[in-house]
């Protein structure tokens, strides 16, 4: 069972920034959808 969960997360595609479309360098399962340069804090 644990192997199925691990495979699920391994097979997630790389996330893309919702603004510029660049690949986000973070875990694919996180909730953020903007890259560092497009994030306005």
From TrEMBL:
InterPro entries xrefs = YhfH-like
Source organism of the structure: Psychrobacillus psychrotolerans
- Superkingdom is Bacteria
UniProt name for this protein: YhfH-like protein
The record's annotation in Pfam families points to: YhfH
């Amino acid at each position: 069972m644990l192997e199925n969960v691990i495979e699920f997360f391994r097979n997630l595609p790389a996330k893309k920034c919702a603004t510029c479309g660049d690949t986000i360098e973070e875990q694919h399962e996180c909730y953020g959808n903007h890259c560092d340069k497009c994030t306005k804090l």
